[in-house]
Amino acid sequence: MVFSISPGKILSLEVEGLLAELARWATESLSTSENREDAKVHVTMDIEEVRQSLQGDPEAYLRLIERHQDYIGRVLWRFSRDRRVHEELVQDVFVDAYLGLDRYRGKAPFAHWLSRIATRVGYRYWKQVDRQKKRESFTLEEWDQLSCDSGEKMDAGQAAALVYRLLGQLPPRDRLVLTLRYLEECDVAETSQRTGWTRSMVKVQTWRARKKMEKLFTKAEKESII
Fold first, then answer.
1. Which of 154, 170, 188, 196 could join 175 via S-S bond, C-beta 3.0 to 4.6 A?
2. Cα atoms found within 13 Å of the Cα of residue 85, Cβ hemisphere only
3. Which H or E run includes 3?
4. What is the pLDDT of residue 207?
5. So what's the pLDDT on residue 38?
6. Rounded to the nearest 5°, which phi and psi values hold at 4?
7. How far is CA 158 from the centre of its chain?
8. What angle do CA 167, 169, 174 make, to 5 degrees?
9. In Å, how far are 74, 172, 203 from 104, measured between CA atoms?
10. Which stretches of the chain are DSSP H helices?
11. Kind and range of the H or E element at 2?
12. pTM of the entire structure?
């Protein structure tokens, strides 16, 4: 499947529409790893295996890892596309989850609880990278590729990579809220749960991040003209 970009379309869109369209191009959207019937069974199994893990059964926790590692891997692919780093982040999630297992109350599916830990782990990694000034640059050529009028086409992999690089131009906090709201299609309530922010803060942070994205595109448009 390929995606074409009409002349001048990108820079004329409002940022919210732009992010939604970029998300559609990047077809790596996080789908649930199980259907609803399987999910009900797994919730029961998860609760039992959490109980067994807390009682000292290491095999029970290994079963939890095996059941959820693919889903957590997809969540963390949003945070790093370096295979080595990605594997370390996945491991960090399950280590953090194990150390805090006694805080899981079973009020939400175990996968949801893990996704909140994964969000914290990924965000922590972004902040570390930001402090070390290793944020990936986004070249004028890549900006041009987003708004080119030559009829060039991008496949899903190219589009996903561009989305990842584009968001990488933002500070971690802005990058996180746009990733959750637009790429993972979380509503305000779920974003609040994943980040630990209030719902009001989620709304404010989303607005601020979109304004920063607008500035990025305005700057890119001016530089491409010069």
1. 170
2. 14
3. strand 2-4
4. 92
5. 55
6. -105, 150
7. 17
8. 60
9. 22, 27, 27
10. 9-12, 15-25, 36-54, 58-77, 83-99, 110-131, 140-147, 156-167, 172-178, 188-195, 199-225
11. strand 2-4
12. 0.73
In the structure encoding, which two tokens stand for residue 158, read together? Answer: 């190219």
Structure tokens at 60: 């029970």
In tens, the pLDDT along 167-208 reads 888 899 999 999 999 888 899 999 999 999 999 999 999 999
Contact, 110 vs 50, CB < 8 A?
Answer: yes
Spell out the residues 6+ positions from residue 149 whose beta carbon is closer than 8 angstroms to its own.
Answer: 6, 7, 8
Instruction: Give the 3-state DSSP-derived string for 8-66, with helices as H, strands as E and coil as C.
Output: CHHHHCCHHHHHHHHHHHCCCCCCCCCCHHHHHHHHHHHHHHHHHHHCCCHHHHHHHHH
Task: Give the angle subtended at the CA of 105 by the CAs of 65 and 78, to the nearest 5°.
Answer: 45
Q: What angle do helix axes 110-131 and 83-99 make, rounded to 10 degrees?
A: 130
